[in-house]
């Protein structure tokens, strides 16, 4: 088991890892001991130097027991504890006050600098690595495409792509590998709709490069031949080579007026300017293209895969969702067969199922920050330069915020009663809150719409377990058996 954990997250032989660990660990251990004596640190274990508790945490994640791993330590040490993961000493901060502290912290206390792995793969100019003024500018470029006012003009494009892809995938086939299909579909929709890249050969090439880069993100940053990390660096180089000519072409099209500045995210980036504003360089655009692909791909593919998983297992929910979608079709007037923004906004029950699914099984388990100054929380010292890890599971499963938390109940999101701040956090909160939630909503609802109005499905392996890889997926890729069900 330990071997398979090492191989999935490192892509390297355990023997090589042990050798590297022994050489580097003693030095780091002594350094660490020396630096932090005298600080009032919370309880917890730093585990082995360099590796820390990464293996134990990642192993729990693979078994979908990450929440138990956290909860055991919360029970032992309280809502804040120390550990060592993904190459750095780390504070895990849980609970509503902890979430408020992390999500409310500004740049002078905490940065959303990701683990070294993302910084290297996505590049030095990627959103979460930028100084605040530049961060705000680049994010503005992303938001100008992702906000509802802009996104609504892309619903029909997204709908056509999803419908065509679904018909292609299910043609003459009654079993579909749902996870791989959702990953491919999400990537294709992102290339075409988010980034305005529709050349099939380029999309295929980018897809295989990104598959390698995604693995590198959740690896331990050891630059040795054969590691996932080193393969990720090579994949980044190939991605840069493919995107540069696309940027050049879009510059020309914007200049001659054949491309609108709101056509896609790259066009939005290229249109950033004005008095005293330094336009984005090609490298800034590439790094943020990679960053956005990493931020959007697995998360959005995960939500639609998990919806398919849930609907295969719960006939009552499937029937209620199908009813909602057939009623939308029944109300449609005119001959246009593509979905509209108004129709997507009628899919309220379907979205409340997705929200409840993200409460019980959040796509993102949590995320990292780095302290940028010595600070304190709950009476403990948090020294500068440590990683901070926030997690969703502790508040999502807290009966003080969600009555009967282990029951799957979409109606809690239909109720008028507001959910207390910083307790329901599948999209985070505060300054770094997800800006792609509307895009993810529209894409997921469109996929579910075409699936439920055309098919019923069941799991080929009903006993299939959920494993975090690091996002939660059915462990054998969710093969589903489809039965055609024409819209009534
Ligand atoms: C179900 C799908 C998604 C989930 C669950 C999700 C989750 C999250 C979470 C939890 C964060 C906050 C991270 C933190 O505070 O540490 C985040 C940030 C972010 N997400 Fe998403 N996301 C999803 C889809 C997307 C999509 C589709 C896009 C883009 C099209 C996107 C773009 C971003 C960006 C750019 C940030 C960083 C914002 C910032 O740092 O200011 N996400 N996402």
In short:
By secondary structure, the protein is of the alpha+beta class. It has a single domain (2-484), classed as Cytochrome p450 (Orthogonal Bundle), CATH 1.10.630. Helices cover 54% and strands 10% of the residues.
How does this model look, in words?
- This is Cytochrome p450.
- Belongs to the cytochrome P450 family.
- The protein is of the alpha+beta class.
- It has one domain: Cytochrome P450 (Cytochrome p450), CATH 1.10.630.
- Helix content is about 55%, strand content about 10%.
- The chain is built from 19 helices and 12 strands.
- The strands form 4 sheets. The protein has a 5-stranded mixed beta sheet with strand order 1-2-8-5-3.
- A hairpin with a 2-residue loop joins strand 1 and strand 2.
- The longest helix has about 30 residues, at about 280-315.
- Residues about 1-10 have low confidence and may be disordered.
- Protoporphyrin IX containing FE binds near residues 295, 296 and 435.
